[in-house]
């Protein structure tokens, strides 16, 4: 146990309580495409207690340049089953649960009701809207991330403490523009995933701030922009 996590528990901010918190935290990664593949892999490697992977797509050839959990033999398979196979080989101490469904307002509680953190690996504005609202209602941490071209952004949404997606005016309805339209440099999903997982850890350890992180993997730029909860927000405005 200690050997496996030695380098991370040696990091002062994770020592000694951090790994115990990671171990006792269950997460759901909604969308195991580009960003979601890397998020779930990192969380399984780091030893989160339970990692639920949720997606309703099958693996396609055009996914393989950036979706690290899949290979050519997985083409045509449901993503969550292929991902489950890879993830359990990486770390059998972690309970990995595949859910081959699309999250909707109707089934959100059934799929996400038993996790502490919801990780955004989706590419749909509408699904993000559902996750944002659900996380506020059920007081779960929601780590939002989005990528396009060479740029991306990520934010920790902590109910009652930070701004939510609605507060910052991010679209919460409709489908996103498919990544084939504006293109996507594969490195950007790894950066978005790394920042998201760090935000999740900082959130459970009380280090997360109310800010959005915006980066570009072509310009090598990264900016932290302060955000503020809107007391009149339609989603989170009634929470203290
Ligand atoms: Zn809000």
Strand content: 15-25%
Average pLDDT works out at 95
Give, in order, the helices and strands. HHEHEHEHEHEEHHEE
Largest sheet: 8 strands, mixed
Q: Roughly what percent helix?
A: 25-40%
Radius of gyration: 17 Å
CATH topology: Rossmann fold
CATH class: Alpha Beta
Please state the overall shape, judged from the principal axes of the Cα atoms: globular
**Strands of the biggest beta sheet: in what spatial order?**
3-2-1-4-5-6-7-8
**Which cofactor or ligand species appear?**
zinc ion
Which superfamily, in CATH terms, is the homologous superfamily? Answer: NAD(P)-binding Rossmann-like Domain
Annotation, overall tally of beta strands:
8
């Amino acid at each position: 146990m200690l050997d496996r996590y030695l380098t991370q528990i040696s990091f002062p901010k994770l020592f000694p309580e951090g790994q115990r918190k990671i171990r006792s935290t269950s997460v759901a990664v909604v969308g195991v495409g580009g960003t979601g593949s890397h998020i779930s892999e990192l969380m399984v490697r780091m030893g989160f207690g339970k990692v639920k992977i949720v997606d309703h797509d099958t693996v396609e050839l055009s996914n393989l340049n950036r979706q690290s959990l899949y290979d050519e033999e997985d083409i045509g398979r449901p993503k969550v089953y292929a991902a489950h196979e890879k993830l359990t080989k990486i770390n059998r101490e972690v309970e990995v649960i595949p859910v081959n469904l699309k999250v909707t307002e109707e089934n959100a509680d059934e799929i996400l009701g038993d996790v502490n953190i919801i990780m955004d690996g989706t590419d749909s504005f509408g699904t993000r809207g559902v996750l944002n609202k659900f996380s506020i209602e059920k007081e779960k941490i929601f780590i939002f991330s989005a990528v396009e071209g060479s740029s991306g952004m990520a934010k920790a949404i902590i109910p009652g403490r930070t701004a939510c997606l609605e507060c910052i005016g991010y679209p919460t309805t409709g489908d996103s523009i498919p990544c084939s339209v504006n293109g996507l440099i594969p490195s950007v999903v790894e950066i978005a995933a790394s920042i998201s997982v760090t935000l999740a850890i900082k959130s459970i350890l009380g280090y997360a701030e109310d800010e959005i992180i915006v980066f570009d993997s072509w310009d090598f730029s990264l900016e932290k922009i302060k955000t503020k909860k809107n007391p009149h927000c339609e989603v989170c405005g009634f929470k203290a």
